[in-house]
């Protein structure tokens, strides 16, 4: 078994996921770059290695059972265990997503990636995470999925994004994160949700105001929690995000 801490980041070929991989690599960890496209994955691995990280490619389409199983096998063969899983891959789905007009197919596609994809990859990796001394799971969520932030009193209401597939997919992901935390309470696995803030990436046509590196910081923090750290919670750089 490897002595280095082993992490896997899904959707790590670009955007926030790439910067999470870079941040974990800078800690001296061995980082699996989960990505579905061979060329984009190899380019990211090359760039991370050029920056000094111990990066390795992990072919992974989070919507595909066989791909998740093969990814787990690859990590097992390479390292024998997994210490940290960052479920970062996500899509917004076709816009606009007004709830009165959105097609069921758009909802299905977004939930398949953003929610079921997280469950699929997490469950494929859990046997490897259970072999770690300090397993951590970070689910990249968004404050647009916070029910409190969408509905609360004016001071709390900081998002009003109308995106009936994407925003509820993150609410669903938050609920799933809590479900894992409940089942895994009493184990050493800490699982939390993170919001990176509004980050300039492909996801939003680069309209975000934060850099991918800034967006990655909260995931790196939750990936490196101490053993007595929180679980079943939702954080951004400012602290706890209300559900
Ligand atoms: N950007 C923001 O302002 C913002 C705000 C709140 C939350 N977030 C969350 O932060 C995370 C990263 O977003 P981002 O802004 O960095 O987006 P991004 O630049 O669009 O990157 C998304 C990543 O997910 C990958 N991906 C999508 N579907 C996949 C699949 N089926 N299998 C494997 N990988 C897949 C993409 O791969 P391809 O290159 O192959 O498409 C890409 O690597 C997401 O969970 C997002 O919801 C972002």
From TrEMBL:
Amino-acid biosynthesis found in the keyword field = no
* Single GO term (MF): oxidoreductase activity
Sorted UniProt keywords: NADP, Oxidoreductase
One GO cellular component, as annotated:
membrane
Superkingdom classification of source:
Bacteria
Q: Which InterPro entries match?
A: NAD(P)-bd_dom_sf, SDR_fam
Question: Does the record bear NADP in its keywords?
Answer: yes
UniProt similarity note: Belongs to the short-chain dehydrogenases/reductases (SDR) family.
Protein name in UniProt: Dehydrogenase
Native organism = Streptomyces roseus
The root-end lineage is:
Bacteria, Bacillati, Actinomycetota, Actinomycetes, Kitasatosporales
